[in-house]
Amino acid sequence: MTRIQIIMGTTRTGRFSERVAPWAVQRLKDRGFEVELVDLRDYPLPFFDQKPPSVTLRDYPTPEVARLGRKLDEAEGFVILTGEYNHGYPAVLKNAMDHTFIEWRRKPVAFIGWGGVGGARAIEQLREVAVEFEMAPMRHAVHILPEDIRPAMKSKDPGDFSVFERIEPKLAALAEGLEWWARTLSAGRAD
Ligand SMILES: Cc1cc2nc3c(=O)[nH]c(=O)nc-3n(C[C@H](O)[C@H](O)[C@H](O)COP(=O)(O)O)c2cc1C
């Protein structure tokens, strides 16, 4: 089974990622992945002020960074859940990424975003960041638009996935690509 992690890239009070995460976890499990949710709230880190992790690799400067690094190491691929803040990705997500490097390298990453344009600007920027990590960013993404966000905010039941019905085919395309890349790059890394 392909082991992926879903990274909750927003941590603010009242975050919409809380609505998206249970749906993404369930649907990707339904598609045969072994899924773990990694909530950045559980990995609080100071603003990055260390030597470059692309140089220090797994020589972790603090136990907190080691905890995140060892967790990310377990994944064969990632799905990043991201809101859009001022036309960019959340700083908390970039800070966590900057604290690490090798753990992401040569693995695929797919994106689920939301906002006025479905998080498209944040996701496009994250694809560029991913390339610097030598990751394979997936073409297929899920963009959750205001017309999907509104019913999801109204529905009080976080287990009510019917609100995301319209975007299910997008998640299916994302999953298909992610599975191939995760399997293929896992084999490549093992060589
Ligand atoms: C500081 C801030 C800046 C935002 N800027 C944008 C933006 O540039 N584009 C957009 O579509 N939505 C923007 N929004 C709205 C967010 O997309 C929306 O609040 C979303 O739910 C954020 O994800 P979260 O709830 O998981 O934190 C912004 C929200 C915040 C809090």
Tell me what you see in this structure.
The chain has 191 residues and is an alpha/beta fold. It has one domain (3-190): 3-Layer(aba) Sandwich (Rossmann fold). The chain contains seven helices and six strands; from the N terminus they run βαβααβαβαββαα. The protein has helices at residues 17-30, 53-56, 63-73, 91-98, 120-132, 146-154, 168-190, and strands at residues 3-8, 34-39, 77-82, 108-114, 136-137, 142-144. Strands 1, 2, 3, 4, 5 and 6 form a six-stranded parallel beta sheet that branches. Helix 5 links the parallel strand 4 and strand 5. The chain is globular. The model has no long low-confidence stretch (mean pLDDT 97). It binds flavin mononucleotide. Residues 10, 12, 15-17, 83-87, 114-117 line the site of flavin mononucleotide (FMN).
Summarize the structure.
The chain is an alpha/beta fold.
Domains, number: 1
| Euclidean distance between termini CA atoms | 19 Å
Q: Can you count the helices?
A: 7
CATH class: Alpha Beta
User: Roughly how many Å is the radius of gyration?
Assistant: 16 Å
Q: Tell me the name of the CATH homologous superfamily.
A: Flavodoxin domain
Shape descriptor:
globular
H and E string: EHEHHEHEHEEHH
Q: Profile the largest sheet.
A: 6 strands, parallel
Mean pLDDT score:
97
Helix content: 40-55%
Going by CATH, the architecture would be 3-Layer(aba) Sandwich
- Annotated CATH topology: Rossmann fold
The number of E-state strands comes to: 6
Domain NADPH-dependent FMN reductase-like: 3-142
InterPro entries: Flavoprotein-like_sf, FMN_Rdtase-like_dom, NAD(P)H-dep_reductase
GO molecular function, one term: oxidoreductase activity
Protein name: NAD(P)H-dependent oxidoreductase
